[in-house]
Amino acid sequence: MVKIGNIELPDFPLLLAPMEDVSDPPFRKLCKEQGADVMYTEFISSEGLIRDAAKSVQKLDIFEYERPIGIQIFGNEISSMERATEITTAAQPDILDINYGCPVKKVACKGAGAGILQDIPKMVRLTEAIVRSTSLPVTVKTRLGWNEQTKFIVDVAERLQDVGIQALSIHGRTRQQMYKGEADWTLIGEVKNNPRMHIPIFGNGDVDSPEKAVAMKERYGVDGVMVGRATIGHPWFFREVKHFIQTGQRLPAPTLAERVEAARRHLEMSLEWKGDHAGVVEMRRHYGNYFKGLPRFKEYKKVLLTSYEKEEVFSTLARISDIYSAEVPA
Length: 330
Fold this sequence. Notes:
This protein has two domains: 2-247, TIM Barrel; 256-324, Non-ribosomal Peptide Synthetase Peptidyl Carrier Protein, Chain A (Orthogonal Bundle), CATH 1.10.1200.
């Protein structure tokens, strides 16, 4: 059993990574149904919460069926993060997660997200202030370092644990790498196998198959894995990994009927959650994976990725089902 604070999780839990414009309630619902053990919201700006910005506040919405769920916040000002922590705590998640890993310029170059990896003492002070500001278990998601010369994650992990975090998720790249190249799990393994560490260590980066998840478990001893991009348009990833761990065999791929139904439900929930325009547009990132491998898919993909009319998108999904059901096992 793995524990984050008093939260009991199964052996080798699978975590849904916080992904901007992806890890929203509709997508989280699908992932939970397929076996995600812990999920995190999209990251939320501390400054947005303090200013009561509508987009930031909406991301605080969580549902009972999602538990255990963490809300992730980011920022670089201690006073703002303390206030955002109070607001987040009032939303009653199970976990409060701090984002020290986002590499995008608009976040990192303002000293937030992975930007704080350039100032480790401040990172530690900020973490300690947040831990003191909430009764929730605090977790952190971060990277190996700012660049190849500053991969201090083994020391950083100890210091964050010492100020009270309850779990640590590590992405096996530096900020400089962004999402390029291969994730390096060797330092994640060093953190996990450091005898001073006693909190759960979750690995993140390039876990794109059940085999890879098991390999990281066996090779580096991590307590679980956090999965991001492999789940986009493929919420079945969680059940596939769990089946492989239990049996050593791969589950059959989801049928065409399952894929169409998941995409349709996802779109329905997206429209309900975000309204017609954003609901249609923000679904586009998922379709390529929902229908990966379908032959002669180009004309339907074009409609799914360009149409602003929900009726047209629904009818296209129905057409995909009708046309391909005779060719693809359903």
